[in-house]
Design brief:
This protein is mainly alpha-helical and about 250 residues long. It is built from 11 helices and 2 strands; from the N terminus they run ααααββααααααα. Strands 1-2 form a two-stranded antiparallel ribbon.
Length: about 250
């Protein structure tokens, strides 16, 4: 079994790996080992000598990468005993989301699903409570986002602001607690999607549809418009990621 795993790992990521690889690249390779060996919390990583042979790097470079994983709270290096998996839970390594998603790309789908469920409901609640001032804020937000469509950072800020206005308009004091966790996990995806011009353009259209439904105080259509928006972004994101890989 171990030999087969090593062969898969070798074919998957270590071809043409040079000894001059950076610690960052080695971290990615170590994550691949964790993934393909299906290591869990408390499991021990292979010995340093074996890792060096598998990856093709020197011990100093390997140790630098191991220290990086320790800082990320993924492994625990025990003096004289080796390195052990400490945690692979998203909430425990939320500041290092690239690692989490590399371990399990299905987390992307889970996040979008969570957003559709919660934010569609939030939009429905907001439709019944939203006031003229909040509607004006959303309308102005869309106008500014359209003006900033070629500015990734500014557009991302407008995107977050719009969803925050809708959340505030819903007037529920508990939902923001859930959204805070989701938004932390979704931050990485938002950074990626807002970097895609096509998604930015379609987001403006979707936000306008959400605004019209909210202005009409139509809970059902507001929920549907929000659900369509998040699903549109998800589809475009995975389509463009697939296109890039090909």
């Amino acid at each position: 079994m171990g030999g087969q795993v090593n062969e898969v790992i070798s074919q998957y990521t270590f071809n043409n790996l040079k000894r001059s690889s950076t610690a960052e690249r080695i971290v990615e390779n170590l994550i691949t080992i964790i993934k393909y060996r299906n290591l869990k919390k408390g499991d021990k990583l292979p010995p340093e000598r074996q890792l060096c042979e598998m990856i093709g790097v020197s011990r100093p470079i390997l140790r630098e990468a191991l220290k990086a994983l320790q800082v990320m709270n993924i492994i625990d290096i025990r003096q004289g005993a080796g390195a052990y998996i400490k945690s692979l839970e998203p909430e425990d390594v939320v500041e290092h989301l690239d690692i989490v998603f590399h371990l399990d790309s299905s987390l992307y789908h889970d996040l979008y699903e969570a957003r559709r469920v919660i934010e569609a409901s939030v939009a429905a609640i907001a439709a019944e409570k939203i006031n003229d001032e909040e509607l004006t804020l959303i309308e102005e937000n869309i106008r500014q986002a359209a003006a900033d469509i070629d500015n990734e950072q500014a557009f991302a800020e407008r995107d977050l602001e719009l969803h925050e206005v809708i959340l505030k308009a819903a007037g529920n004091r508990v939902i923001p607690v859930f959204m805070q966790s989701i938004n932390k996990l979704a931050l990485l995806i938002r950074q990626k999607t807002n970097a895609m011009p096509n998604i930015r353009k379609n987001t403006i259209k979707d936000h306008k549809a959400i605004f019209r439904a909210l202005k009409n105080h139509d809970p059902q259509e507001s929920a549907a418009a929000m659900e369509r928006h998040i699903r549109n972004v998800e589809r475009a994101f995975f389509y463009e990621r697939t296109e890039v890989k090909q």
